# Entry
Amino acid sequence: QKEVEQDPGPLSVPEGAIVSLNCTYSNSAFQYFMWYRQYSRKGPELLMYTYSSGNKEDGRFTAQVDKSSKYISLFIRDSQPSDSATYLCATGTTSGTYKYIFGTGTRLKVLA
Amino acid sequence: SAVISQKPSRDICQRGTSLTIQCQVDSQVTMMFWYRQQPGQSLTLIATANQGSEATYESGFVIDKFPISRPNLTFSTLTVSNMSPEDSSIYLCSAGQGTDTQYFGPGTRLTVL
# Structure
């Protein structure tokens, strides 16, 4: 079992839709949870970073963490064609090496 | 946040040669990381580079193949040695401050013929 599982997609939605992206993780020691957005031929760009269970909102983006079920989500409201990218979830722990584990990424396409 | 630049942005190399990738951060950071990303796959950590100490390599990656330098708190290099076509990939560096999150450079796209 991979430490972080993420559906690779692709996921196609119409402009204005609410998008839900999800990951599961296996190691309960993970304490940090991140979402990155990666446009084609670019490096990953940090979108959201959260430490605890619950919701964190930033503009059209909401990150949700449920540590009891080891499930993390990213919601995008009023999706735009410019949101078309690959979204990577990542988890990490501060124990030892501060190493992060990334999901494979979900490719999202928002259709105009 | 940190702004990270990488050089070169892309290169095409011959089998058996070596390439050194540079990573520059606009502020001092404790930790720098080198990743490999193959098409359609996730980021795989190669090694963690802390200033003043030897890099820590992940399983499957060795110093002879991927020597890393970290001469100061804003700069690191990764060398891909004795390259083969299997080394064709995107190489990414990132920087972080301990418990803080990681910020990524734009990547170096390497093709080995």
